[in-house]
Design goal:
14-stranded antiparallel β-sheet, five-stranded mixed β-sheet, 6 helices
């Protein structure tokens, strides 16, 4: 291994060859940027063949190009960071911009005004670089490092800052099958499932719910960008918008620190409108470190954050049986004082709103004994569910500038959330189902400068989301309580609902989703044309077991006796359901190809045209557990040849006419053209007028 060798690595050779052979290939968006500009002399004439050198002040990496015949230069596929730009031409003084920031997916344009040389003179420009988007048709906003770290965040969740983009709004709360801090945002009026989340250029999506996986803590994030409108052809699948997050990396200087953020209700004043202070105790603590392993060549960054949350349970309200009800007397709870002014009378054979306790269902009576007997005349019960959680996040990243032409980085992120279950022989006040969740994300990328005008980037991404709803020990099943109802799932009572009174049944479950992504992009600058092409392949695995109906599901609504609680106690449900639960062993492959040309007609006018191909290859179940329903065949009484006992009209894989391995037909010819114009009216790089057409 020779870090200073200019020979491309084997990985770079393969990646470059793959991109070139793909011709019009399409791929996933990356988190790099580019710098462009126009070199002119003191009279305003363009200067061709000027030597342009861009140096990364944090890592020492240098990229060099020459200005074209029209004075334009472009340096593509550079990572975010702080840079220095030098422009030199014989007969002119060296022009230097000593330090400016290049942000994620930004394309700043710099105006270079050379001066005639006088002895050994250097012209240093200290004005701020215009950061107007001069290349992309999309509309976006960067949330930089200072805002990520300094702005107050509830729970230190970085994605709360997505809303600062203006066109983004929160899309609601996550479901029980998702990690608690996953990201849901609607961008520019799109649906909440139409936003694409990227982390270090790789897909960072929960494919079960089509929302973003949890992001690292603020101190590990360098910046992120929210984009919408007419996105480039390298974006696909999610048309609403893109949230592109970049993690921190090391540099030639060591930087580190430790932190703790404490929230304790004992230090807070009482909310004026609240009867008491809140009881939240939350400690968030951690440390981070970054620096060189080998100066100018290998860098590292690592960080950790822990979050411990403790609080008294919030007060909830339910209604249950009183001592009188358990003795068979429903007189008080059915009186107008307990039923919003309406007198309720039980249906026959019950007289005087009384039921002989011998008519109570023994299983129902045993189950209701696990609910507190209310001392309120109307059966009101106030209770709280203890919810003490903890979360641990870790991130590690290594950047290796293997040579002046080849650089590699690898990053791993993991976050664990746990909420222990707690059962105390009380189905209302107990947390009968806890959480043991883990999300991991890893990315490795190789960027190879084939020539000053050709750059190739290869990425491999893997993410895994495992969400486990853990049942508490000691929770009885209906079988444990003496019922002859089949209860295959241990420590799960089943879903039981008594309308207007109480419900039970914290549902356990197991969900594990894996995503593997491989992409390659090649950026070619050919005169006035910048051609970007690539391919992307994503393989998703969805594995899950949601046994919400494997143990019986009952509902009681008062339709039998006139009162839901009476229906429950005598064992007369309004509905009963039981099935195989939700079992998922699905696999789906998603290939895509794209190509886009940015044609610089003039220094102030760029025309873009692109095409993306996203064939839909439907998911399939690896155990063949898919079916379709055909109404016409149902009306004809036709049945499956694979499962002959199935109801008419229901057909399975292997039946004649079944669409392959899936119950959905594939659609191959899905093409998405992109076109538009970017115009700089004054040619100074300080404003642009994009005119997109999708």
């Amino acid at each position: 291994m020779q870090p200073h060798s200019n020979k491309p690595s084997l990985l770079s050779r393969i990646a470059s060859l793959a991109a070139i052979c793909a011709a019009c290939a399409g791929g996933q968006a990356i988190s790099s940027s580019q710098v462009s500009g126009v070199v002119k002399d003191p009279a305003g004439a363009v200067v061709p063949s000027a030597a342009v050198k861009l140096a990364n002040l944090e890592t020492g990496e240098v990229r060099s190009v020459r200005s074209e015949a029209d004075g334009v230069f472009l340096i593509a596929d550079i990572p975010v960071g702080r840079y220095k730009l030098e422009v030199a031409k014989q007969g002119f003084a060296v022009w230097v911009q000593p330090g400016f920031d290049v942000q994620v997916n930004e394309n700043p344009m710099l105006n270079v005004a050379l001066a005639f040389e006088r002895a050994e003179q250097e012209i240093t420009v200290h004005e701020n670089t215009p950061m107007v988007e001069s290349h992309s048709l999309g509309v976006g906003q960067v949330i930089d490092e200072s805002r990520v770290v300094d702005l107050p965040l509830n729970g230190r969740q970085v994605t709360q800052l997505v809303a600062l983009a203006g066109a983004a709004v929160s899309g609601g709360t996550v479901g029980t099958r998702q990690y608690p801090s996953e990201s849901i945002y609607s961008v520019a009026g799109g649906q909440r499932t139409e936003t694409n989340f990227l982390l270090d250029g790789g897909a960072h999506m929960d494919t079960d719910a089509n929302i973003g996986l949890p992001m690292p803590f603020p101190d590990a994030v360098r910046e992120f960008k929210v984009e919408t409108s007419a996105l480039a052809a390298n974006y696909g699948n999610h048309p609403g918008g893109v949230v592109n997050v970049v993690t921190k990396s090391g540099s030639n200087e060591f930087h580190g620190g430790a932190f703790e953020f404490l929230r304790n209700y004992e230090l807070n004043a009482r909310n004026f409108f609240a009867p008491a202070r809140d009881s939240l105790k939350r400690s968030q603590f951690g440390a981070l470190m970054g620096g060189p392993i080998r100066k100018d060549r290998i860098f590292f960054f690592a960080g950790y954050q822990g979050t411990i949350t403790r609080s008294d349970p919030a007060t909830s309200t339910a209604y249950g049986p009183t001592a009188a009800v358990l003795a068979g007397d429903f007189t008080q709870i059915l009186s107008p004082s307990c039923t919003n002014g309406k007198q309720i009378t039980l249906k026959g054979p019950y007289v005087g709103n009384k039921v002989n306790p011998s008519a109570f269902n023994p299983v129902a009576f045993r189950l209701v004994s696990l609910i507190p007997v209310s001392t309120d005349p109307c059966g009101k019960i106030q209770y709280g569910v203890l919810s003490n959680s903890q979360e641990h996040q870790g991130i590690a990243r290594v950047d290796w500038r293997q040579s002046d032409r080849n650089s590699v980085f690898a990053r791993w992120f993991i976050t664990d959330y746990s909420l222990p279950p707690d059962y105390t022989n009380n189905l209302l006040t107990s947390n009968t189902v806890g959480g043991a969740d883990r999300v991991q994300s890893a990315v490795a990328a190789d960027t190879f400068v084939i020539s000053p005008s050709s750059v190739n980037t290869f990425r491999a991404v893997f993410s895994r989301s495992k969400v486990v709803r853990v049942p508490a020990a000691g929770v009885p099943t209906l079988t444990d309580l003496g019922s002859n109802v089949y209860s295959p799932v241990p420590q799960f009572t089943g879903s039981l609902s008594v309308s207007g009174y109480f419900s039970t049944g914290g549902i356990p479950g197991y969900y594990a989703n894996n995503t593997l992504q491989i992409s390659d992009d090649v950026d070619l600058i050919r005169g006035a044309h910048q051609i970007v092409a690539g391919f992307n392949w994503t393989h998703n695995q969805l594995n899950g077991l949601g046994p919400f109906q494997q143990n019986a599901k009952f509902s009681f609504d008062g339709s039998q006796t006139g009162n839901a609680l009476a229906d429950y106690l005598v064992g007369l449900p309004a509905s009963f359901g039981q099935g195989n639960g939700q079992v998922a062993y699905d696999r789906i492959n998603s290939p895509s190809l794209y190509v886009q040309d940015s044609w610089r007609v003039r220094p102030v006018l760029t025309i873009q045209a692109g095409l993306r191909w996203d064939p839909f290859l439907p998911q399939h179940n690896i155990e063949g557990m898919v079916s379709t329903f055909d109404l016409s065949k149902f009306n004809q009484g036709l049945v499956s040849n694979v499962f002959t006992n199935a109801p008419p009209g229901v057909f399975f894989e292997g039946d004649s006419g079944f669409p392959g391995r899936s119950n959905t037909a594939q659609s191959v010819f899905l093409l998405s053209p992109r076109a538009g114009v970017v115009y700089d009216p004054r040619g100074q790089g300080r404003e642009s007028l994009p005119a997109p057409d999708r």
